[in-house]
Design brief:
With 306 residues, this protein is α/β, with parallel strands linked by helices. The protein is built from nine helices and 14 strands. The protein has helices at 40-50, 65-76, 118-128, 143-155, 185-192, 199-211, 250-263, 268-282, 295-305, and strands at 4-7, 11-18, 30-38, 55-62, 79-80, 84-87, 93-99, 104-109, 134-137, 159-162, 180-184, 216-220, 226-230, 233-237. The strands form two sheets. Strands 1, 4, 5, 6, 9, 10, 11, 12, 13 and 14 form a ten-stranded mixed beta sheet that branches. β7 and β8 form a beta hairpin. α3 (118-128) runs parallel beside α4 and α8 crosses α9. It is globular. The chain starts with a strand and ends with a helix. Bound molecules: alpha-D-ribofuranose. Alpha-D-ribofuranose binds at residues 9, 11, 13, 38-40, 43, 95, 106, 140, 248-249, 251-252, 288.
């Protein structure tokens, strides 16, 4: 089976719960403070591994306490850490997360996540990648390195899955290097100018990517579910009912699940529903990597909801 190769971020998440997000200048009481491994790249890599793929993570951390912990957690989750560099004189990525029952807000200090350039990523790809492997990336590493890595991976015959998060303006020229794109509502708005709020605008947002030449486009819609477009085909998956504790990492689990489904050549209906199951289960626990379910848990949940 093809491997999943993720070029992405590793962050230590400092996460605190509160009843509501404070206004400017306001202090609100917090509780259940948690320090736990995150970062979109590492979360997606851990998700793909727990959900059944062989996974390599390409990334970087600082030579500090958090960096060592972030790297040590990877093999425990089944992720190959051989392409994660530990760099001197730079701090590890850090995310300050404020979470409520239904949402979260994140402030990022990129640190070592921005240290790798195309040369390092290319070296890693030449060591671990083979045609038809799945290449996954986001926008928490260096912008130029990420776009160049997408092109390189696509040129090498890998299947590319791009999660442009956090969203930023992107050149039109990137889209012919992308086989599958997955965004949430706000990322869709930043990139396409279309905020998906109902069926018409969801379809418009998806169509924007299809017109750019991306074969498969997906929008995750939080508590409204997810939608997929492939050519003219449109699929909608309503959100699955679970008791939400923390949404951190749910989108990353969805991406990891997509990568596994692509590696296993599953059909689009199954892929969208199964990835939604994986993401829903993630929201039932607090934290990022620690809340990602196993393959058996997702299969069981899928079989219950029918
Ligand atoms: O997508 C969730 C992740 O975003 C968190 O783990 C945090 O590290 C930020 O990168």
């Amino acid at each position: 089976m093809p491997c999943v190769i993720d070029f992405g971020s590793l962050n230590m998440d400092l996460s605190i719960a509160c009843e509501r997000i404070p206004q400017a200048g306001e202090t609100v009481p917090g509780h259940d403070f948690l320090i736990n491994p995150g970062g979109k790249g590492a979360n997606q890599a851990v998700a793909a591994s727990r959900l059944g793929a062989q996974v390599f993570l390409i990334g970087a951390v600082g030579n500090d306490v958090f960096g060592k912990q972030l790297v040590e957690m990877l093999p425990a989750a089944g992720v190959d850490k051989s392409e994660v560099r530990i760099l001197d004189d730079i701090s590890s990525g850090l995310a300050m997360i404020t979470r409520t029952d239904s949402d979260n807000r994140i402030i990022l200090n990129a640190g070592a996540n921005h240290a790798l350039g195309l040369d390092e990523v290319s070296e890693s790809l030449s060591r671990v990648a083979h045609p038809a492997d799945i290449f996954v990336t986001q926008l928490e590493c260096g912008y130029r390195a990420t776009l160049a890595a997408l092109r390189k991976a696509h040129d090498q015959g890998l299947v590319t899955l791009f999660n442009p998060a956090p969203a930023m303006s992107l050149p039109d020229s990137i889209w012919d290097s992308v086989d599958m794109v997955c965004v949430n509502e706000t990322e869709c708005q930043t990139i396409t100018g279309i905020l998906p709020t109902d069926k018409a605008t969801i379809k418009q947002g998806l169509s924007w990517f299809i017109k750019q030449g991306v074969p498969t486009a997906i929008i995750t819609l939080g508590d409204k579910g997810a939608a997929l477009m492939q050519g003219e085909i449109y699929l909608y998956q309503p959100a699955l009912e679970v008791k939400v504790e923390d949404t951190t990492g749910a989108g990353d689990t969805f991406i990891g699940a997509l990568a596994v489904m692509v590696a296993e050549h599953k059909d689009r209906e199954f892929t969208l529903r199964w990835a939604s199951c994986a993401a829903a289960l993630t929201t039932t626990k607090v934290g990022a990597q620690r809340s990602i379910p196993t393959r058996a848990e997702v299969d069981e949940f899928y079989s219950h909801i029918g």
